[in-house]
Amino acid sequence: MNKHPDTNYNRFEEIDSEDLEDILMQIEHSFEIKFDHDDFLKVTTYGEMCDVIFSKVELANNNGCTSQQAFYKLRMAIADTFSIDSGIIKSDTLIENIVPRKNRIRMIKELKRNLGINLKILSPPLWFIIADIVLFLLGLCAFFFSWKIAVVIIVISVLGFIIGDVFGKEIDFETVRDLVKEMIHKHYLKSRRDKLTVNKEEMQQILDDILIETFYLERSSLVRDVKFGWIK
Fold it and tell me: Could you tell me the pTM of the whole model?
């Protein structure tokens, strides 16, 4: 059974290959690149994987700080959306204090339009998520008694996930800084002022951060010569 990407692996060698594929798909989307099916066939170490990723990025280098550019971009979008002075928006400003609960779903949609980035900012409450997961598991167990009842329960739970995703009002990020980090990790190029450039010096740091935060790795485990666990 594969580990969930949120599992604490502690070391790079413990990462499951299929979980790593999910990360590569995220990197494709964020850096707007495309991997071929044989790109990683001869890759055995983390450093070699990074080399393949960076070789796909053929844009000009510009040393502008993406975090700073993303912050200014987000700050302007927030100011336009909620008609507030952009000067009061700091990196440690609480998102909860900016986005009122009333009309939150509509306002977040407008914020994403102004930002030009489709971020997932809202979720259903935790109790709803847990209840839906329990319902789904009950549906699986119901197969032992009646497949018809099981299918009905699972369909209801799936609809619950969809409804929760559409109508959830809980904010996933505490501060503006947290949202900026999400922008950079999930939409690196769109977060930059000039989408036709990258900062090659910071890209390694961003890639390290993505793996560390996704798999709860120790930073010391991410060295160039560390091998994948499935390489013999």
Answer: 0.83
How far apart CA 205 and CA 160 sit, in angstroms, is: 37
Total H helices, total E strands in the chain: 10, 4
Residue 228 domain-assigned (yes or no): no
Phi then psi for residue 198, to 5 deg, are -135, 160
CA distance 170 to 121: 8
Question: How many C-beta atoms lie closer than 10 Å to residue 159's C-beta?
Answer: 11
- The reply to whether 182 and 85 lie within a common domain is yes
Domain span at 152: 126-167
Identify the bridge partners of residue 10 per DSSP, sorted by sequence position: 217
pLDDT (mean) for 80-88:
94
Q: Is residue 2 part of a domain?
A: no
Total count of residues recorded for the chain: 232
Quote the CA–CA distance of 160 and 129 in Å, as a whole number: 9
pLDDT tens, position by position, 184-194: 999 999 999 99
Residue 216 has a pLDDT of 85
* Strand 197-198 relative to strand 122-123, pairing: unpaired
How many structural domains is the chain composed of? Answer: 3
Residue 14 pLDDT: 79
Q: Do 74 and 99 fall into the same domain?
A: yes
Distance (Å, whole) CA 79 – CA 81? 6
Per-residue pLDDT, averaged over 23-37, amounts to 91
Q: How far apart are CA 58 and CA 33, in angstroms?
A: 9
How far CA 10 is from CA of 85, 112, 132, 164, 219, in Å, comes to 43, 35, 30, 32, 9
